[in-house]
Specification:
- The termini are far apart.
- Helix 2 runs antiparallel to helix 10.
- This protein is globular.
- It has 14 helices and nine strands.
- The chain has two domains: about 150 residues, D-Maltodextrin-Binding Protein, domain 2, CATH 3.40.190.170; about 130 residues, D-Maltodextrin-Binding Protein, domain 2.
- Strand 1, helix 2 and strand 2 form a beta-alpha-beta unit.
- The chain has about 350 residues and is of the alpha/beta class.
- Bound molecules: (2S)-2-hydroxybutanedioic acid.
- The site of (2S)-2-hydroxybutanedioic acid has 8 residues, from loops.
């Protein structure tokens, strides 16, 4: 009996010790002085591909570093809006942002490659660009100004919307004012080629401009059209898939390189994992959000035909040559080659 008692006590002690060894250190035990805080600022809603991926990244990083790193996510332009984010990152006031490639077009004109109309036929082609030579070349371009690109995230293909009329032919755009994302000359010229006027607006000001009628149309992805309620004030939509909205997750190079090696490894591995997840999620949300917009009954949706696409394409094709000196002939050629491959 006595032996059995000792045996049980020893088993219980061993179990407690084993449990301790496996248990993650209590997050509250992380010394506040040792805690690394990463601020991730973005402009979209939480229930969007970028919004959800930012939250997932934050959760996984906290778990995997046992609370040593806290990623604070600020959605909806609450911390910095378009036009402020990049400076905030350069000044290390935030450590992660994920703007569209278009919004980097002033600082890095080469990024406007993504804005060339009908640059990509499908997402597989987008990924061949971002994950291949084009992505590498652009990453090298962005590696200046103390910025460090960490990943390319998807949103989806952009569609045209308007409050005035259906947008089937280039002439339907004539005289209307369209909102374009900040910093991209290609996007302005895309609309001007159809005789439309453009106004560059930060994302957080778009709904109000559309609702007031000051701006009559815009281009965006399903998740943004739904989450920002653009569909409530834009009764006409053309599914044209004429451009792909891609994000670059950027950090401040000096900050990133100052992180302990083990922490940086966890962050980079988690970023790679979340990137794969985000891309799947983006496809899923675009389908889901198109279905929601359809169900709302508020939008007349026109799916562009192959014939109509050819007409738009013909008007826009000269933009490739026109922007070759801006974007770089080598990058335009790389895109042309990619387009031929599939
Ligand atoms: C927009 O400004 O329309 C988008 O780039 C917002 C975003 O980040 O998806």
């Amino acid at each position: 009996m006595k032996h059995l008692y000792f045996f049980l006590v020893i088993c219980a002690a061993a179990a407690v010790l084993a449990g301790c060894a496996k248990r993650a250190p209590d997050r509250e035990q992380v010394n506040p002085g040792e805690k690394i805080v990463i601020k991730f600022s973005h402009v979209v809603a939480e229930d969007t591909p970028k919004g959800l991926a930012a939250l997932r990244f934050a959760r996984l990083v906290e778990e995997r570093t046992n609370g040593r790193v806290e990623v604070q996510v600020f959605p909806n332009s609450v911390l910095y809006k378009d036009g402020e984010e990049l400076t905030a990152l350069e000044e290390n006031k935030v450590q992660l942002i994920a703007p569209t490639t278009s919004k980097l077009g002033e600082m890095f004109p080469e990024m406007q490659l993504f804005d060339l109309p009908y640059a990509f036929a499908d997402t597989a082609q987008v990924h061949r660009a971002t994950d291949g030579e084009i992505g590498k070349k652009l990453a090298a371009v962005m590696g200046k100004n103390n910025l460090l690109p960490l990943a390319y995230w998807d949103n989806g293909f952009k569609q045209m919307t308007s409050s005035r009329r259906r947008l089937i032919y280039p002439a339907d755009f004539y005289g209307l004012t369209f909102r374009v994302m900040i910093n991209s000359k290609v996007l302005e010229e895309q609309f001007r080629a159809f005789g439309a006027k453009t106004v560059q607006l930060p994302f957080n000001e778009v709904y109000q401009a559309l609702a007031s009628g000051a701006v009559e149309g815009q281009e965006n992805t399903m998740s943004n059209i739904l989450s920002q309620k653009f569909y409530e004030v834009q009764p006409y939509m053309t599914i044209s898939n004429h451009g792909f909205m891609c994000y670059v997750v950027l950090t401040n190079a000096q900050f990133w390189n100052s992180l302990p090696g083990d922490i940086r490894k966890i962050l980079e591995e988690t970023m790679a994992e979340v990137t794969a997840w985000e891309r799947k999620k983006a496809e899923e949300l675009n389908d889901r959000d198109l279905a929601k917009i359809k169900t709302s009954g508020k939008v007349q949706i026109h799916v562009q035909t192959e014939e109509e696409r050819k007409i738009w394409k013909k008007v826009w094709d000269p933009l490739y040559d026109r922007f070759a000196p801006v974007v770089g002939t080598d990058l335009i050629q790389a895109l042309r080659d990619l387009q031929q491959q599939s």
